[in-house]
Each structure stands twice: as structure tokens, then as C-alpha cells.
Amino acid sequence: MSDNKKSFKKSRIYVVFFALVIALVFSVLITTAATMLKPLQQQNMALDKKTNLLEAAGLVPEDRKPSPEEIKQIYDTHIREVHVDPRGQILETPAGNSLQLYLIHTDQQVQGYIVPISSRGLWGKIHGYLAFEQDGQTVAGFSVYSHSETPGLGGEIESNWFQDNFKGKKILNASNQLVSVGIAKGKVENLPDKLQDHYVDGISGATLTGRYLSEGLEETLTKYETVSIIFRQKKGSQTHVETILDE
Amino acid sequence: MHTDLSHYKEILIKGIWRENPVAYQVLGICSALAVTVKMSTAVVMSIALSLVAAFSGLIISSLRHWIPSNIRIIVELTVIASLVIVTDQILKAYLYDISKQLSIFVGLIITNCIILGRAEAFAMANNPADSFVDGLANGLGYSMILLAVAFLRELLGSGQFFGFSVIPQFLYDMGFQDMGIMVLAPGAFFIIGLLVWLKNSLPGVSHEKK
Q1: Do B85 and A10 touch (CB under 8 A)?
Q2: Closest by alpha carbon to A202, among A157, A138, A158?
């Protein structure tokens, strides 16, 4: 009897059978965990995106961590998501080639706008937001909500010192041409004077992350240039959120 | 006789100190380099790895009489990978900020040699309770080194402890600068090397005379 048992345990059937059972048991375990935790994870992700959007716009109190309700409330009162066609007209329903952007408004008066960034990174995509002031050329803030850069190196793109760098940078040069904002190699103060407005301090040990992000920013800003032009033309004048992008 | 407390204590001391996975077995170095820039990531990584090591030891050891020896590595990896994925899912649900910082390194617990090493060397040959303690001990041994490295790197590299600045401003005014190399991987190499040296030169723990 025990001999039989031993030879069965050495047979191929047993090996295959055992492998199948193990695979089944553990896939059930993983699926259960993933399905049960999914709502919580999605909630976290949605909240994180909103928080980052508000951070880019400079609407989050910096000295403390706001509660989820607070984030939602600030978002609802100050942000409007719109889709525009490549000429800059607001669309009722998003179309294939429409651009997504967020208007920042206070009491229905437009204060600026936020452009979603999706850039190549070293290990994966970098997703974030770049906020502009009403003049269509001054950066109001930058934030990153998802990336797979190396923690401590490229991962520093989500740290405050790096993101605060972007505030006040210009995407236009002296002759009003789009030059985007780039990530410098090293400190900005070592660059020539006329470039300092268009670069932010780089991260040591993350040259490639910086290079890819610079490229991604330039690509995105070129795409959104039509929108930025509309803002530049209306510079200074108070504009209602409904009419900002109508000509 | 083998179930009394001193027996577990023996396994614990062996895993944490005498045969410390990083300092003695020199396993798990790559993650020790990667997640030790800051204390907060190192702490979560330590907890995650210790739990995975303990439970994979428990599960693999309970299955050890049924696991066919020709596919045992695959089975061990299945168990470990499943536990890691579940851990990652839990982190994403309850500690979203930290899981974002750890990013790929939680997934890389699967390839951490400590866990597969203990599964293969200990759990396949010992009873479940011992294996659980052994996994936990090795996880804690790894954690100890990880936290020591992270403490030194965060302090010297960014002048912080758990994200709070601890180096007084007047030192910076006097010309003190954060050591850039500590933030980079070579800094971790130096510190781990020095720690291994320190540990092995302490009286009574040298392995060279064996």
C-alpha cells in the first residue's frame, strides 16, 4: 500500500495534478484579494489624481494634509474639466482628437488652466499636471501622480523641492516663441541668464528621467499651444469660465 | 523537546544575528541598495519582506511532504509570488502613498534571494512552526541591516530622519553639506560593506576562524 503511494507520488500524473491544484488555489487567492481591494484602490487613485491636480494649481494647503472631503470640495468649487478641439473650441462631448484640460476658476472667473502631462520616463510613463496662470505662459505649478522611476533618484520628480521649481517659469522666450520648460543637468544658476527662466533644477543621478520629462513636456505644450494662444490674447481681462475659450 | 522556547530563540538569533542574511549570507543586496534612501520606504519594505518570508516558510513547509521534488522551485516561487502580489494589493489599498514610493520594489520581493533561499534551505526540511520563525528571523535580520543603512543614508544624504530635518541650520551655515553620494547606490555599497566589516569584526561573531 505504502509502496503504491510512493510510486504514485513519483508519477508524472501526480506532478501535473499537484501543479494544477497549486495554480488553482493561488490564483483564487490572488483574484479574491485583487477584487476585494479594487474599490479601495480605485478610490485612492482617483483621490490622488485630484490631489495632484490641486497641488499643481496651488490650491492645496501646504502645511497640513487635507482630508478626502476637503479635496473633493476644493476640486468641485475651483476646477472644471473641459475638452477642446485642436482649434481651441470647447466641445460638448470629447471627440477622438480633442484635448483635455482643466480650468481653474474662482467665482466663475478663470484664474488659469491645467494641462495633463503624459511623458516617457526611464522605466515607464510619467503622468502629471502642469498648471498655467491666466497669461498662458507662466507656469503656476507642476505635479506628478504616477510614475515608475527609481525611488530616491528619478522618483524625486514627485518631491516638493523639484515640483516647486516650476513655479514662475516661462514657456515663451523673449521673442514670444514656445521654448517649453526643460529640466537642467545640475543647477539652473549655472546656466546662462537668458535660459534660467525656461529651466528647472535637475535631479542628480536621474539625468535620463530629466531628459525624457523635458521631451514629454515640450511635446505636450506644442499640442496645447493653440489653447495657450487664446489665453495669451485675452491676457489680464477677467473672463467667465463659460466664455474663455469662445472667440 | 524541540518545541520549547529556547529552540525558537536559537532559530531567531541565528537568522537575525549569527547568520544574518545580508551581513553573513550576503543575500538581498539589490533591494537593500534600492529602498534605503529614506527610512519610511525601508520600514515598509522590511515589514513586507518579513511577513512574506515568514508566511512563505509556513506554507511551503506545510506542503513539503506533497511537493514533487522535480518541480519544487516552481512551487516555491508560486507561493512566494502570490504572497507578494497580495501584499502589494494590500499596500495599494491601505498605504497608497508609500506603495507609490516603493513602486517596483515590492514586486521585486519575489526575486529577493533571501526568501527563496530560506524556502529551499530551511522550509523544505523543517516543520511549519520552525520555518515560520526562521522566515521571520531572516526577515528581521534583513530589516535590521536595511534600517541601519537607511538611517545613515537619510541622515548623511539629505540631513533628515523620517522626512524631518534633523541637522541644525547653523551647521549648514558653517558650511556643512549633505553628502550627495549617500543618495546614490554607491553610498549604500560603502555603508553595507562597512556594516559587514563591523559585524564580523565584533568579538565572538567572526566566522573566519571556523
Answers
A1: no
A2: A157
